[in-house]
């Protein structure tokens, strides 16, 4: 089975009206309901995080009119700019879901409600320091590399437990759970295995976590694979293209290798 990085990229029509956004959101929610029911879970336990990266603000406004109140962005400066330009919308929360360079922690601290890609102690320290200055707190998800691919960011599963324990002393960070990007593959078993690894890690950590720390959340699943993620326990699914339409740029643009200059073009 070969990887098909862009297998899902061309199949989603671009939503251009509030009605189309309402329909897309309704369709995704229905898929969530069906997947939750099949897994014997309540769909109330699965949050939908619409991912609006690359989508211009005019179209984001339509999605908000259609009911979106929570948006995910992969690049922090794009997210900050949008949050400022959409600041007139009172009930809108932002999650930064992509890899973050330590020197950009200050941007996240300024506006984000959640950060889903915490993967180093240096970054945790920078966020804590910046959140102190802003007098804010942040829900964080620890990103775990569940696919073993060199190109993916995130901690090794074996390192995540100790990492979470250390986070207990950061009072500005609320450790909500774990996040992963599954392998990009048409092999559903390989994809699902990534979600299983994250769920088992979460269960282990929660069983042994020090008092007060209960990082139950599982941020996993995207347009092409969120049903399997829900089956494996996802509590937040991050869905972009199925709501907003296909992106022009290949996904490799958003998830370059860990050695590349990721945010140089942000
Ligand atoms: C873009 C992105 C998503 C959403 O992917 P879609 O294919 O648009 O559903 C989810 N998670 C992360 C980290 C992303 O960058």
Automatic annotation (TrEMBL):
InterPro entries: Ala_racemase_N, PLP-binding_barrel, PyrdxlP_homeostasis
N6-(pyridoxal phosphate)lysine PTM positions: 53
Signal peptide limits: none
Amino-acid biosynthesis recorded as keyword: no
SUPFAM superfamilies found in the cross-reference section: PLP-binding barrel
Keyword line: Pyridoxal phosphate
Pfam families, per database record: Ala_racemase_N
Residues annotated as domain Alanine racemase N-terminal: 29-247
Homology family: Belongs to the pyridoxal phosphate-binding protein YggS/PROSC family.
HAMAP family xrefs: PLP_homeostasis
Function (record text): Pyridoxal 5'-phosphate (PLP)-binding protein, which is involved in PLP homeostasis.
Protein name: Pyridoxal phosphate homeostasis protein
